[in-house]
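This protein record is not my work; I was only asked to verify it. Would you go through it and say whether the fold makes sense for this chain? Here is the record exactly as it was handed to me.
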Amino acid sequence: MIREEEPQELHPMDWWLRSERLPHIWCAGCGIGPTLYAWTRALDRVGIDKKKVVYVSGIGCCGRGSGYLDVDGFHTTHGRAIPFAVGIKLVKPELCVSVISGDGDLFSIGGNHFIHAARRNVDLLVICTNNFIYGMTGGQLAATTPQRDYSTTTPYGNTEPAFNTPYLADASGAVYVARWTSIHVRLLERSIAEALGMKGFRYIEVLSPCPVNYGRRNRLREVDDIAKWFWEFSVVKHEADTKEVQIERGKPLILGNFVKKEKKLSCYEELKELEERVRAAAEAKK
């Protein structure tokens, strides 16, 4: 008698995963997994063909996502995720290109690329997993580390103000700006789905726990301490003024969908209109 193997239970998002590469290497309590789960559920919700999905990340913990997700992925050099994504979109404008990377990659090393991609209204969805620290490289100060918080390079506390990334995106020209946390998975999923249905530069900040390199240095040592902070201090304020959503310890964490600008042409639509005008002018001279 041949013994039949028991059927294995599949992950709900197995269609989007390279399951042979699991288990993943992210630390317990990390918010990247829930963020990618929300992203894949949003792709399902919108009904985008998997063959047209591209995941782009820079150096950092999010970079591992390109190895675990069963879509075309680019694990780029540090701070250069957005210019790589811009190149992909220019060559293949029909693709759905998402940049999912960390705060250090997008706003410190890659900050200039972020500003100008938003200014030009490049047709990308950028999701930042903001864990307030350089997580993978040893816990150094980041451009998003709150004032007076600790890191390996600020052992006596951070004296510098942190970026308010939704305000930066809004001021630079993004057509969609939102902020959620990785524990608000369903709300994050809906926000990503809404952004996927738009054209132009869309930005979602996802506050993401890093218990190992941020939490243990800032009196949030237990694996779920940062998640509890997010849960207890989060306040949802849709259409909030992005100037007023700065993150400060001990104060409310303002979440929500802040900016949605309809009917603004993307960079590629502007280029298409320019091409048509040039061709029309050339035809008129014949």
